[in-house]
Description:
Layout (H helix, E strand, L loop, with lengths): L4 E6 L6 E6 L2 E7 H7 L9 H24 L6 H10 L4 H13 L5 H15 L4 H10 L4 H29 L11 H12 L8 H14 L4 H11 L2 H7 L1
Antiparallel strand pairs: 1-2, 2-3
Amino acid sequence: MPDIITALNADHFDPNKVHVFIDGKHALAVALDVAAAEKLAVGQPCPPDRLERLHRAEEINAIYASALNFLSFRPRSAREVELRLRKKGNQPEQIELVMARLRKVGLVDDREFARFWVGNRMSFSPRGPRLLRSELRQKGVPQEIVDEILAEQTETQADLQQRADEVAEEYELDGDEPIPGTDLANALSLARKRLRSYSNLDPQTSRRRLSGFLARRGYGYDVIDGVMRRVYSVEDVEAED
């Protein structure tokens, strides 16, 4: 009886690989996951159609491993992963299967990616809602998810402000520093660092450049105005307005 699996040998260099021998001849090497899914065993028949299925499963497994490696550096949007796999020359139907597998185990989730992206930016490289929106859309995150996550961010900042206001009222505090974690606080921190490079400029040029810098960082008029009133004299800001 031909086409029988006569041996399943472990790879000497890759413990995650199994070499499949059919009728005493080496047929292919597959990942342990593929071997387990196919329930390979010595003595089983392995006709051409099953051998072809094993080849396809191993190809998908290799593409999946490539995607996992890409995701190991940082979370990615679905679009980023798809483009990466497409760039590697994989077929659309292969990419579709791999993406479905990644979504099933939660490794690709545009909603969680957007939360990661916003949180990471706010912590390490602050920017305003407009720029965050633009970045997320460039990453391929759907508009409705972008809107949802930025709304969450706005709500979080509003909660921070409300709690701070309640504490200030209870203890009769009076301070002009914005609440840490809010757009105003982040923009003010950026502005103060940026001002060091404007030390040789006249006040009007300094204000114009700082305003433009914050606008390019995605902050709106209200935040920029709040920053300007804190780093320049009120009279100067009102005169320019």
